[in-house]
Amino acid sequence: MFDSFIIKPTAFGLDISDSSLKIIQLKKRGKSFALASFGETKMEPGIIEQGDIKNEKALSENIRKAVKEACGERIRTKRAIISLPEEKAFLQVIQLPLMKEEEAQQAIYFEAENYIPLPVEKVYLDSQIISCDAKTGKLNVLIVAIPKTIIDSYVRSLKGAALEPVAFEIESMSISRALIKDNMDSQALVTVDLGENRTSFSIFFEQSLKFTATSQLSAKNFSELIAQSLKISFKEAEALKIKNGIGRSKLGKKITEALSSTLETLVDLSEKYLNYCQTQYNQKAAKILLCGGGANLKGLADFLSQRLKISVELGNPWTNIMSSRSKKAKMLTPEESLRYTTALGLALRGAKL
């Protein structure tokens, strides 16, 4: 997406969130890829707020630090593919009459005005023809728009860090690239990204992202509630999420009780978007794939599966990166990999340029 920003090939992935920067660089290994570099840099509050950059200079400094301190091989390229904040994007699948591609591009621009709550001249607009139905005589087109003020601010911050933005894309696009196997794209799937500061829900089928939504529910909420209920530190609560989690043990029951309201909200939202997939697209989701740091809450997948009556799995962000013979990424644990899902999806795009 946002191919108008493409400059040169070969790039690393840079996932920018309100509180941290995550970097992944992949290298070619036979017919698959291997992890070359990775890193995470925490940022002070206030540099980015809900996707809006409040301090471009500070962000540039943090990006420089993240690149310099990345583990593994030294990152020598200045080219990066960057995530854009999901909550700032307008995404819609529209229908157009069958027409030539060059005609469609012009029609998309004018049709987008009916779906975007901003003047078209104030957004960067990208589109992708996702299917062509000869029977109905319609083109299904995915359009994504983001305010120019948002992207321009990211560009300035990246250039301040001496980086060249190869391309930008919303997080859900990167996540689907990392988690969804090429031979699974005919099934409707829902991805749930339990991030540090928010949760994103996406619907994907027919080789395309169809829908995305965000919630303020977050992995940080989990840890704060556990810490408050059990009267322990935030760091201890983080460890308990992974080691003990929710379940039938004495401690597991206490954690479940501490998270009861938040878990119910997660169930309600997941059910809402599963129903939306069925009613809006006439597609029953085959499964839910979890990712993000919050997905490491032990027992969460089983809990959601039982409540929603659908298969819920922890996503594997290496599924399209490593060959089936590769057991794991040596430098990242499975738990860490889930936190790097967006960055891995970005890096995979960069490795294929």
From TrEMBL:
Gene3D superfamilies: 3.30.1490.300, 3.30.420.40. Residues 11-179 form the SHS2 domain. GO terms for biological process: cell division. SMART domains: FtsA. It comes from the Bacteria. PANTHER family: CELL DIVISION PROTEIN FTSA-RELATED, ETHANOLAMINE UTILIZATION PROTEIN EUTJ. This is SHS2 domain-containing protein.
